[in-house]
Amino acid sequence: MMKVSVVIDNHNYGRFLRETLDSVLAQALDDAAVEIVVVDDGSTDDSREILASYAPRVKSLLQARQGQAMAFNNGLAAATGDVVCLLDSDDVFLPGKLAAVVAAFADPKISCVQHFLNDTDAKLVPLPRRFPAWPARYTLDDYAAGRTEFTATSGLAFRRETLLKLLPIPKDLFYYLDDFLTAHALFFGEISNLPAVLGLHRMHGANWCAGGLEDPAKIERDFADRANYGAHRERWLAEAGRTRAPEAVDAERLELWRRRVLLESLRARPLEAARVWREGLRGLPKTRHARFRAATTALAVLSPTLYLTLYDWYSRP
Predict the structure, then answer these.
(1) Which domains, ranges and CATH numbers included, belong to the chain?
(2) R_g of the chain, CA atoms, integer Å
(3) For the residues 105-122, what does the mean pLDDT come to?
(4) Is the pLDDT of residue 29 over 70?
(5) Helix, coil or strand: residue 62
(6) How many CB atoms lie within 10 A of CB 243?
(7) Which of 44, 129, 143, 147 is least enclosed, having the fewest CB within 10 Å?
(8) Which pLDDT value is given to residue 277?
(9) Distances (CA, A) of 41 to 45, 86, 153, 288
(10) Nearest to 150 by CA among 202, 97, 104, 194
C-alpha cells in the first residue's frame, strides 16, 4: 500500500483548522498509511494550541513567519509518503479524496493528480462555479500549446520522487505557487485529471483568492508573481528544447491586457485605462476570443463595477 502524506500550511486560521484536520482524519484509508504534517507559519491565534490537541496523530512543525512558499517547502521536505497531497488550512477534503488520488497514481506515468475544488463561503456553503472540460490527462504537449487548466493548491497531489525534483518553491512566489509545482511536474510525467469535486475551497475576506480582480493591490501582486513564474516556465521549456505555441502566448497577452485596463479603471484613471486599451488593439489576434476580449475590456474602461458584475455573472454555471 502506498503511504500518503498530507502537508498543510497554516497562518492564523485556527478558526478553520479543526475542520481541515478532521476532513483528513475521516478519510477511509488505513490510519497507518496516512501521515499529516502541518507547518504553522508564525501564527499568533490559537492555532498552535489546536495542533497540540491533535498530537501525536498530527505532526506539527512550528516556525517563525516565513510565508506560504517556505511553509510548504519545509513541510514537503518533512513528508515521507510515496504520495504527497497539499491542503490549505482553510480548505477541506471530501470523503474518498485520498482513495481516488492513490488509485490514480497506480499508473507509473503519472507525476501529479488534480481534481476539482468547489468554492465555498467561510461556512463551507458552496458557491456557483464552472469547471473545465478536462481530458483524462495532460502532457507536456498540452502545456506548451496552452491547453492546460490547473486546480488550486488543495486539489493537488504529487508523486514524492517527482516532487523532490520540483523543490524548492521560490520564497517570493505567492499566487503561482501551485502552478509552479503543477506545470513543472509535466516535465517529468503526466497529470491525471479527476473530474470529481473532492475538496472544498473557502473564499473569504481574509484570503487573497477572494476578489482578485477587484483590488488593485492584488492585481499588482499578480503581475509580479506572473512575471516570476513566467521566468521559471521559460527556463524549463528551454531546457527541454520546447517553446510555447503562439496561441498560448496570445492568450496570456490578452489576460495581461485585461488586467492592466482594469487596474487603471479601479484606480479611477479612465484616461490612462483608455490609453492602455487602445495600445492593446495593436497586433490584436484575429480570433473571435480576441474580439470578445476587446469589447468587454472596453466596458472595463467605462465602468469597472459594471464590468466585474457582468464578469461574475458570465463566470457562473
Answers:
(1) 4-202 (3.90.550.10), 216-315 (no CATH)
(2) 20
(3) 96
(4) yes
(5) strand
(6) 12
(7) 44
(8) 97
(9) 11, 15, 17, 46
(10) 194
* Eight-state DSSP code of residue 168: P
User: What are 31's three cell numbers?
Assistant: 490510519
Chain centroid to CA 99: how far? 22
Q: How many CB atoms lie within 10 A of CB 55?
A: 9
pTM value is 0.92
The torsion angles phi and psi of 180, rounded to 5 degrees, stand at: -55, -40
CA distance 231 to 227: 6
Question: Residues 193-249: pLDDT tens digits?
Answer: 999 999 999 988 656 666 678 899 999 999 999 999 999 999 999 999 999 999 999
pLDDT band with cut points at 50, 70 and 90 for residue 128:
confident
C-alpha grid cell, residue 121: 463561503
Amino acid at 184: H
User: What is the C-alpha separation between 277 and 284, in angstroms, rounded?
Assistant: 11
Closest CA to 183 of 214, 219, 229: 229
Cell numbers representing residue 67 in the block: 510565508
Cβ proximity of 289 and 316 under 8 Å: no
